[in-house]
Write a structure and sequence with these properties.
The relative contact order is 0.14. Helix content is 83%, strand content 0%. The chain has 16 helices and no strands. The radius of gyration is 21 Å and the shape is globular. By secondary structure, the chain is an all-alpha fold. Helix 2 packs parallel to helix 5 and helix 3 packs antiparallel against helix 14.
C-alpha cells in the first residue's frame, strides 16, 4: 500500500502505530471482559459496570488533550497515549479485584482517549491539500484491517479458554504499544510552529472554538453521520437474527464483508471521490447511501427466508461500506482543514466528541425505537442520514471560506 509523501519516516512509522492500536483494540474488546472475569471471580455485572465507569471517566479528556497538543505538539502526546495504553495493559497482569480492575481499565481508557485525541492532529501535520485525504483514507483502512485481525485472533484465544493465553495476549499488547511509541519517537517529527502562530499557552483556542458556530455545527452533523456507522454493529445482528430470522452465521459473514471492503478499497474510493466533489460533497453522498442502506435493510422483511435473502443482504452491506469509505476520510480531512493551525489540536480533539457521542447515543436510540416498532429504527436513522447530508454542504462553504479561522 503506497502512502503519500510525508516528513522523515512518518510514511511507515505512523501506519505501524495505527496498526498496533487497531489490532490491540480488536483483540482486547472481545477478550477484556472474559479476562477480568477469569482473573477476579467477579460477576459479569460488576465487571461491566467497572469497565463502563472507567471509560466514562475518560470522556472529559479530549479538550484538555487538545490544549496540550497545541502547546507541545501532537507527536509527544501520541507517544504519551501509546505509553499509557501500554501501562494499562501491564496493570492488567496484576488485576485481582475490583480496585485493581478499575485502575487498570482507567489507565488503558485514558491512554486510548489521549491517543485518539491527538493522532489525527499528527496525521494532519504530515501532509497538506489532497494528500491529507489519502492519509486519512489509509488510516481508516489500517484501522479496519487491524481491528478485524485482532477480533479474529481474539476468537482463537477464546477458543483456547486458557488463562495463560490471556496473559500472553495482554503482555504482547503492552510490549507492542511500547514498540509503537518508540517508533514514533524515533522516526516521526512533529510540525514546526510558525513564527506568528499562537503558542497554545492562552485559552484562546477553546474560546475561539466555542464561538465558532460552523465548526460546532460540523461536530453536531458528524454525530448524525457517526450514528449510521455505529448503527451497523448495534442494529444489524438483531435485525438479521430476530426480525429476518436468517441463520446466525450470516451476521459474521456480513460484518466480514464490510471489514474487507473498507480495509482494501477506501483509498481508491477517496481518490476518485475527490476528483469529482468536495469533502462535504463526499460526506453528503455517504449520508445518502446510508439512507439507502436503511431503506434496503428495512425492505428485507418482504423477502422470504433462504439464499435470496442472504444474497440480498450481502449486497445491502456494500451500501454501508461505500458510505463509510466516502464519509470517514472526508470528515477527518474537512475537520483538519477547517481548524486554525494554532489551535488545531483543540479543534480536532473536540471533533472526537462526535464519535464518542454517537457511541453513547446509538444503543439507547435503537432500543427505544425497536421497542415501538421493529422497522422504526431504520426509518429514523435513514432520516438522520439525509438530514446530515443536507446540512453538511452549507457548513463546508462557511468553514472553507474562513469561518473556522475566524470563528464566524
Amino acid at each position: 500500500m503506497r502512502w503519500p509523501r510525508a516528513r522523515d519516516g512518518a510514511a511507515w512509522a505512523l501506519p505501524m502505530a495505527l496498526a498496533v492500536d487497531a489490532i490491540g483494540t480488536g483483540l482486547c474488546l472481545p477478550l477484556s471482559l472474559v479476562y477480568f472475569l477469569t482473573v477476579t471471580g467477579l460477576s459479569e455485572t460488576d465487571v461491566g459496570l467497572l469497565m463502563t465507569a472507567a471509560a466514562a471517566s475518560s470522556l472529559p479528556l479530549p479538550l484538555l488533550v487538545g490544549r496540550i497538543v497545541d502547546r507541545v505538539g501532537a507527536r509527544s502526546v501520541v507517544i504519551a497515549g501509546q505509553l499509557l495504553q501500554a501501562a494499562g495493559f501491564f496493570l492488567y497482569l496484576g488485576v485481582a479485584g475490583p480496585v485493581s480492575l478499575f485502575l487498570a481499565a482507567l489507565v488503558e481508557a485514558v491512554g486510548l482517549r489521549v491517543y485518539w485525541s491527538s493522532v489525527f492532529a499528527l496525521i494532519a501535520d504530515q501532509a497538506d491539500g489532497r494528500a491529507r485525504d489519502q492519509w486519512f483514507a489509509r488510516a481508516g483502512m489500517i484501522r479496519a484491517a487491524g481491528t478485524g485481525a485482532g477480533t479474529v485472533l481474539a476468537g482463537v484465544l477464546l477458543g483456547l479458554a486458557s488463562q495463560r493465553a490471556y496473559h500472553a495476549m495482554v503482555l504482547a499488547d503492552a510490549i507492542s504499544f511500547v514498540c509503537a511509541a518508540v517508533t514514533v519517537g524515533l522516526f516521526v517529527r512533529g510540525a514546526r510552529r510558525q513564527a506568528n502562530q499562537p503558542d497554545g499557552r492562552s485559552p484562546d483556542g477553546i474560546r475561539q472554538l466555542l464561538r465558532n458556530r460552523p465548526y460546532l455545527g460540523l461536530i453536531g452533523v458528524n454525530v448524525l453521520f457517526n450514528i449510521c456507522t455505529v448503527f451497523l454493529a448495534v442494529a444489524m445482528p438483531v435485525h438479521v437474527i430476530r426480525v429476518l430470522h436468517a441463520p446466525g452465521w450470516t451476521v459474521g459473514a456480513f460484518l466480514t464483508i464490510t471489514t474487507v471492503v473498507v480495509a482494501t478499497c477506501t483509498a481508491e474510493v477517496t481518490r476518485r471521490s475527490r476528483r469529482r466533489t468536495s469533502r462535504g460533497g463526499a460526506m453528503a453522498w455517504g449520508g445518502r447511501l446510508w439512507a439507502a442502506w436503511c431503506v434496503a435493510a428495512a425492505l428485507a422483511v418482504l423477502l422470504p427466508r433462504g439464499p435470496l435473502l442472504v444474497g440480498y443482504l450481502a449486497l445491502v452491506m456494500l451500501l454501508w461500506a461505500t458510505a463509510e469509505m466516502l464519509h470517514g476520510p472526508a470528515s477527518n480531512a474537512l475537520s483538519a482543514e477547517a481548524a486554525p493551525p494554532g489551535a488545531r489540536g483543540t479543534y480536532l480533539a473536540a471533533f472526537q466528541y462526535s464519535f464518542a457521542t454517537a457511541d453513547m447515543v446509538t444503543p439507547g436510540l435503537f432500543g427505544v425505537l425497536y421497542g415501538v416498532d421493529r422497522v422504526l429504527p431504520w426509518v429514523v436513522v435513514g432520516c438522520l442520514a439525509l438530514t446530515a447530508s443536507v446540512a453538511v454542504r452549507p457548513l463546508e462553504r462557511r468553514l472553507t471560506k474562513g469561518g473556522a479561522a475566524g470563528g464566524g
